[in-house]
Design goal:
Order of helices and strands: HH
Number of domains: 1
Helix content: 10-25%
């Protein structure tokens, strides 16, 4: 899922159908405070079942941090472009909670 490494919701507007399996190689941007070292299973796109290669991408703080950003990697390796947009988001609001009553 791209939402984890990006830290925001990702909406699929590609129109592509089906499942895809691929490896996306990129380097996390630690300066932006990303919490995840790389994409996990299913991490790359619409219906994607991406599998990360062991050791790829390099962990934050490792010696190899010269790889592409996730934005560049998605465009160069998959031919897709991530575009930031504003739009409606489904939100669940809980305004009151009570413990259950015994029967």
């Amino acid at each position: 899922m791209l939402a984890q490494p990006l830290g925001r919701m990702v909406v699929d507007k590609t129109g592509l159908k089906g499942n895809y399996s691929f490896t996306l190689k990129w380097t996390p941007d630690v300066s932006r405070g990303q919490m995840f070292g790389g994409p996990g299973p299913g991490a790359a796109g619409p219906g994607g079942n991406a599998q990360s290669t062991p050791g790829m991408p390099p962990a934050p703080g490792s010696s190899d941090s010269s790889g592409p950003s996730i934005f560049t990697a998605v465009q160069q390796q998959l031919g897709l472009k991530l575009k930031p947009e504003k739009g409606p988001v489904e939100v669940l609001v809980i305004d009151h909670v009570e413990p259950p009553t015994p029967n």
